[in-house]
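FAQ: What does the model actually see?

It sees only this:
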Amino acid sequence: MSSAEKRTLEADEIVRGFVEDVWNRGDLDRIENIVHPRYAVSGQVVGAEWGRRNVENDRPAFPNIHVAVTDIVVMENRVAARLILTGTHRAEYRGIAATGRTVTYEEAAFWTIEENKLREGWFVSDALGLRIQLGILPEDIWHNPAAIPPSSS
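And it is asked to produce this:
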């Protein structure tokens, strides 16, 4: 196996380990082994503790969360992954009271690996679809701009 193939395999394992161990199992102790201490999100350094806080904030809202890595592409130290998240909304989530609804939404995640850890992440998620599934926005909002509530400004 070439060194490039080995790095590709390691990057794949790091991302899958983060998803499986941290998100799916809630093993927060794994964060320090997987997330770089100078971890950045969208270019802003937030540190590994951000990952811990993110999981601590989101998992109680969706205690049965399951994140599936459906596609993954690795190029040197960069990883692109298509994720499908499923869970039941059981507690407050970012100001939204528990609805009891089961949701499924997608996210595209782009990570850079450095020193065998996640060093930087960029994420694009279906926040609109999630809010529609939670009942916060009407189902036809995407196709019916008139359904958008008027601005209060």
